Amino acid sequence: MMNYSDKVMEHFSNPRNVGEIENPDGLGEAGNPQCGDIMKIYLKVKDNVIEDVKFKTFGCASAIASSSMATELIKGKTVDEAWELTNTAVAEALDGLPPIKMHCSVLAEEAIHKALNDYREKQGLDVIPVKEFDHNHDSFAV
Amino acid sequence: MQNVYLDYAATTPTDPEVLEAMTPYFTELFGNPSSIYSFASKSRAAIEKARGQVAAALNALPEEIFFTSSGTEADNWALKGALEKLRPKGNHVITTQIEHHAVLHTGEYLEKVEGGSVTYLPVDGEGRVRLEDLKAAVTDKTILVSVMFANNEIGTIQPIKEIGEFCREKGVLFHTDAVQAAAQLDIDVKALSIDMMSLSAHKMYGPKGTGVFYLRKGLRLENFVHGGGQEKGKRASTENIAGIVGMGFAIEKMKARLPQEKPRIGGLRDRLIDGILKTVPHAKLNGAQGEERLPNNTNFSFIGIEGETLLLDLDAKGISASTGSACSSGSLEPSHVLMAIGLTHEQAHGSLRLTLGRGTTDEQVDYVLSVLPEIVAKRREMSPLWEDYVKKFGEK
Q1: Contact criterion met (CB < 8 Å) for B328 and A60
Q2: Predicted TM-score of the model (pTM)
Q3: CB neighbours of B255 closer than 8 A, spacing ≥ 6?
Q4: Burial tier of B218 (Cβ tally within 10 Å: 0-12, 13-18, 19+)
């Protein structure tokens, strides 16, 4: 089995912000069942600040831990600050992920970007191009 | 916390009596069996005793038994040795899509390096090879058929006797990887028309690092391990005497226990299967049922969750299990076996294998049944895939 950090195991065992938000201000989904990961991020935004965030994730322990950590990191941030969250920051906050699992943090970044864009669209703002990650994982394989 | 080991298909603990029989061959009786002095003859005698024990367990002759370092080595020997020896006759090998990697990757090697042509037979929804597919695949270039006795992931037992008889009639060599089956079933190589067979000690309460290759008398293969003249010049390297002694004793003891142990384990298996199918909504049993399934194997798919999370959640409750999900293995593709029986990626990712053994008790089965439904429910609750599934098919 994978060697996960204590932080990953802690967030996997007690994930924060699990659930849904009814009528979210932003909703983003990344991944697909073929690769075994789907991440859905729900945002509640007030005065440009992420007041609440929830997630639902199908995937391995690192996908669940990445969702949990990423939602923690953007909660209370402005939407612009939240956009700056990178997958590396998520992985670092989890005290690292095994190389083969780095795509899980990438998935979190992508789902958040999509949720923020959904919010921007609803606000009549320009959508920022999102880097679509290659979910066949080849680029992350070790 | 309870400690419940349910991964006997991965490996078994060495039986303390087996270990005790092995110990002298590390220390006092360490002599090289190839040496002349008298105390080395004890090593030779120990090896021949073990050879007799293995032969007796399989209804084989002692001279048909060769000791190897593993089941994997025996598989390599069978495939490479057959093609190298029989190439003038043909280069076609038939195997299945659900073999262990020891056969599958050796097959790929034959194609890439040795000029072999390999057919990988499909299987039905329960993982069974269809005899008509095999018959249709045989050509005048076919020299070898290799079909595993029983599958390591889903426990489905193959129609070995029918395959063996067909191959014998066709004059094609028949090899079977019986690494899983030999620890759970009575195997009679004569009655089943088996030409070559691979076994492993550590799946049957023997030590790791020892395997057996059965080669029917009169058949010739190229050697796989080259060097000294051990094993009648067919398999070089100084014998792992302690390991060989362990293998012989382990298979003898396993065989003696089988009449009681097989129904006991089979009963626990059925209780586990029935319990899980009853208590976990939308649980799916993968593989065959009843007599066509290894008595110690269970394999399920729980749609909506990923196998690695199941393993970690079970581990937190003291239960050791296994999955065919990609995420746990370090590879990113889900199990080739689960894909071959027609599961979707989602079903393959959500698979759980629980394999039973000597240490498994009624209480342990009850314990698993008491914690598993809750774990599955908890992870499904956070799964968008489950949410979609329930919308389509309902909660139950």
Answers
A1: yes
A2: 0.94
A3: B57, B186
A4: exposed
How open is the CA angle B7-B10-B15, to the nearest 5 degrees? 85
Tens digits of residue pLDDT in B299-345? 999 999 999 999 999 999 999 999 987 665 556 678 999 999 999 99
**Under DSSP, is residue B119 helix (H, G, I), strand (E, B) or coil?**
strand
Based on DSSP, count helices (H) and strands (E) in chain A, helices before strands. Answer: 5, 3
Look at the domain A6-131 and name its fold.
Sufe protein. Chain: A (3.90.1010)
Residues of A in contact with B384 (CB under 8 A): 29, 38-40, 56-58
B204 and B348 inside one domain: no
Question: Cβ A57–B384 below 8 Å, yes or no?
Answer: yes
pLDDT tens per residue, range A56-70: 999 999 999 999 999
- In chain A, which residue's Cα lies nearest the Cα of B304? A58
The domain tally of chain B equals 2
- ipTM of predicted assembly, 2 dp: 0.90
Q: Is residue B10 less than 8 Å (CB to CB) from chain A?
A: no
B332 touches chain A (CB under 8 A): yes
What pLDDT is recorded for position A140?
40
Looking at the complex, does the CB of residue B387 fall below 8 Å from at least one CB of chain A? Answer: yes
Parent domain of B267: 4-10+258-393
